[in-house]
Amino acid sequence: MGQRIEHVDSIRAVAVLLMVMVHAAATWGPSPNSQSSFLVYIVSGLGGLAAPLFVTVFGWGCFHSSSTPSQRYLRAGFLVLSQLVINLTAPHLFDVFTPGVLTLFAVLILIQPLWVSPFKNYHERKNFILWASIFATLAIVYFVSGLQGSKVWDERIEVASIIIWFSHLLLTGTYPLFPWLIFAILGSWIASQKDSRLTFPVTKGTVTSISIGLGFCIATLLYSEKNGIDWARPRGDAILTFYPANAPFLIAALTGVAILWMLIQNVKSARLNPLGKLSLSVYLLHFVPIGLFHTIDENNDWSFETSLFVILIYTLIWIPIAMVWSRLIPKVSAEYVLRTLTKKLVKQ
After folding, report:
1. What angle, 0 to 180 degrees and rounded to 10, lies between the N-to-C axes of helices 112-121 and 126-143?
2. What is the pTM of this model?
3. Which of 33, 273, 287, 332 has a C-alpha 20 to 30 A away from that of 223?
4. Residue 194, in any domain of the structure
5. Residue ranges making up the domain that contains 161
6. Is residue 231 within a helix (H) or strand (E), and if so which, with residue range?
């Protein structure tokens, strides 16, 4: 795109802040026995929207990208290497070769024409394409749930062979192509709208869809309370599960992403824009302190209040860091390196 849209940078910033919060909570959160429902719902609610929002805004950017195949290959390779760096800096969370959200971005870039072109070539049918994709994804997840692999965390991150790596990349990992492709498709649909001031259309159709999604979330929450079932958990037995992403989670996440996008596009939040422009760099860098200091609460001795304070401070501190970073050393970033490499590729 020729001109950046400020609220999209703000959305990127919110997405990366939520990702930081999730990883901080996974590292410094209190023990399960001491968690109150307040922290559980924060992590399961806002935290559960981190990756969906991150992938959606990535899909938005891919729609506006005019990269050549060679540039896409370079970017994909850069992201795969970046995922390896992340795994090395956070060994308490991932195996060395565990595919993650950046490898998901890499494969999305490689197959970009397959999921972006329909919205460009059949613009008048964009709503049908989106809903057909959503219903097909939900149907496969619901009726063939075994495709997504185990609910055991170790089995989703361990990579014993190249075959398992590809399996995790496509179906059975932490952020496999299926079903996470649906969020990139949503981002491409948002990008296909013609109004750049409000990128997410506020229409009768979108409001109705969001209302139905909210109704579904409330109904499942009430059902869980009535029957003594966990409403949302990263993995295990619950109505909404993240690993693997089940159908109720996908409905809730698509609804939540739509709400966040609509809210943020109407809020003047220029202070978040530097963080949005450095979202990849911050995503990479925030694992370093987590990896270095993950043992400071190894026995889960911190109280709920202490854990919450540490998690919030560590999350929010990246806003001023990004402001200073963008002013003093804007060229020292993953974004600048990637732009420079792709520009050189064009000149060649």
Report:
1. 140
2. 0.93
3. 33
4. yes
5. 6-347
6. none
